[in-house]
Write a structure and sequence with these properties.
About 40% of the residues lie in helices and about 20% in strands. It has about 220 residues and is α+β, with helices and mostly antiparallel strands. A hairpin with a 2-residue loop joins strand 1 (about 40) and strand 2 (about 45).
Length: about 220
């Protein structure tokens, strides 16, 4: 009897400690997001100070007249399983609305549009070795490239509360696409089907890439001049 009671108490203690660790991890994650200025919109992270292009890249103006560019949390989660990142070389001219980045997800690929007009001044070399920062820290260590812009047209893009409303509309569109195509639902909490690049059919993948990144795999070579 005493042995059974001891074992039960030990089990409850381990269970309690495990739950505490989970709570602590979640609390640490929330604190880290708060310190970075990140907000959650229907389960997806958003930095309210950045500008957001319709192709799910973000723009962060920098003090030296350049901008830093990356993929937003919504976009990188749609491309869960990125294996290789191809970035435009330094000195390359990028044009807003023209593909500048290619992301290899194994059997699937996706291209991202440049959100600005300008010349590439630097790239995140770390991503050519490993793509994990895209998932772990899309608004920080997972940045893609920097550019000296030739105009300020990007300031007309959504930012702050306007960006949050735009992201809500994107999540609604994603839910509709998944429900119509697969009979699945992307919940308001941002829960997606696991690894869309491998789970979706070719037609559904093309629909997803066209709808949210405004590109196709069959587009011409990315501009490299």
């Amino acid at each position: 009897m005493i042995l059974a009671f001891t074992l039960a108490a030990a089990f409850l203690l381990v269970l309690g400690m495990s739950a505490l660790l989970v709570v602590c991890e979640k609390g640490h994650e929330r604190a880290w997001h708060w310190l970075r200025g990140l907000h959650k919109v229907r389960g997806f992270l958003l930095h309210p100070a950045f500008f957001y292009h319709p192709g799910h890249t973000w723009i962060m103006p920098q003090a030296n007249g350049t901008v830093r560019i990356g993929i937003d949390d919504f976009g990188q989660r749609l491309l869960d399983g990125i294996r290789k990142v191809s970035l435009p070389p330094t000195g390359c001219r990028v044009i807003e609305g023209i593909a500048a980045i290619e992301l290899d997800c194994g059997k699937r690929k996706a291209r991202l549009l440049s959100p600005v007009n300008g010349v590439v001044t630097g790239v995140n070399e770390r991503l050519t070795q490993e793509s994990s920062p895209l998932a772990r820290d899309p608004y920080g260590k997972g940045w893609l490239f920097t550019a000296k812009v030739s105009d300020q047209s990007y300031v007309r893009l959504p930012t702050g509360a306007t960006a949050a409303e735009w992201l809500k509309r994107e999540t609604d569109q994603l839910s509709l696409l998944l429900h119509k195509g697969l009979g699945l639902t992307a919940a308001d909490g941002g829960e997606l089907i696991s690894k869309p690049p491998t789970m979706l059919s070719e037609d559904h993948w093309k629909a997803l890439v066209t709808t949210f990144f405004h590109t196709t795999e069959s587009e011409g070579e990315m501009r490299k001049e």
